[in-house]
Write a structure and sequence with these properties.
single chain; mainly alpha; 4 helices
Length: 88
């Protein structure tokens, strides 16, 4: 009440957290696209997820990045899969 929040399509008000989250995600997407230019789609997606995970976890350890992504896969499987799938 009294605050004017941006409106989404359909007229539902957005709270500040959602506005900030969308803005950060938009900037992150642009940055990851510039970093991964020329890579195939799976690798581009990997770059975006890693950057998002680093930002969300505020850590560069793979286990913390994986936790922040909240994937439904065991952390050991992520660790074992990642280096071989995306190296070189």
């Amino acid at each position: 009440m009294g605050k004017d929040f941006p409106q989404k399509q359909g007229g539902a008000p957005m709270n500040n957290d959602i506005v900030i989250r969308e803005k950060v995600n938009e900037q992150l997407t642009k940055f990851s696209e510039s970093l991964s230019k020329g890579l195939n789609k799976p690798k581009r997606g990997f770059i975006h997820q890693i950057l998002f995970g680093i930002q969300a976890s505020k850590d560069i350890k793979l286990s913390e990045i994986a936790r922040s992504l909240q994937e439904r896969i065991k952390l050991i499987k992520i660790r074992n899969k990642t280096p071989s799938a995306y190296a070189g």
